[in-house]
Amino acid sequence: MYLVRRRESDRLRWEAWVIILSVVVLDQIIKVWVVRSKVGYVVNPGGSLSIFSGRGGIYSSISIFMLLLVFIWANKFSKIESSWLKILGGSLILGGGISNTLDRVLRGGVIDFINVFGVFKNNLADIAIVVGLGLVLLVTIFHGRIRANGTQDNI
């Protein structure tokens, strides 16, 4: 039983890394295309909704530190968690966070290009973070009602 559980855990970790790398690579490819094709974009030197603008170095350091904490948490969590939805959510959060942190370090700010209701702009990494957080919250709220395979328990 332990060996089967360990194999499943290893498989889930492998899938998590594929998702993380897919988000980072796809987001970075799109951002390079957006910048080269001069599609309407902004460089956001701050955090979400340009909070902390002008403090890019501090924000980059905080981002790297937070990503390290999330990575450590996700690594420990993946050894005991069998909920594919939670692992998917955590992978989306990490992938989006890594991609935005790469922007901050390499470009001095995050490239935002998706116009949302004419109010603000974001990018694929931001969407991955929000969707991932939503998945983690939903699975956490309905803990015990949603099985690892995504089916609902009868309570």
C-alpha termini separation: 27 Å
Report the total helices. 4
Instruction: Provide the structure class.
Output: mainly alpha
The secondary-structure element order is HEHHEEEH
Mean pLDDT: 78
> What count of structural domains?
1
Shape: globular
Which spans have pLDDT < 50 for at least 5 consecutive residues?
none
Approximate helicity band: 55-70%
Strand content: 5-15%
Total number of β-strand segments? 4
Major sheet attributes: 2 strands, antiparallel
Global Rg: 17 Å
Question: Which strand order spans the largest sheet, edge to edge or round the barrel?
Answer: 1-2
Describe it.
This protein has helices spanning about 1-35, 55-80, 85-105, 125-140, and strands at about 40-45, 110, 115, 120. The chain has 4 helices and 4 strands, in the order αβααβββα. The chain has one domain. The mean pLDDT is about 80. The chain is globular, with a radius of gyration of 17 Å. The protein is mainly alpha-helical and about 160 residues long.
Lay out the secondary structure.
Elements: H1 2-36, E1 42-44, H2 56-80, H3 84-107, E2 110-112, E3 114-116, E4 120-122, H4 124-141
Antiparallel strand pairs: 1-2, 3-4
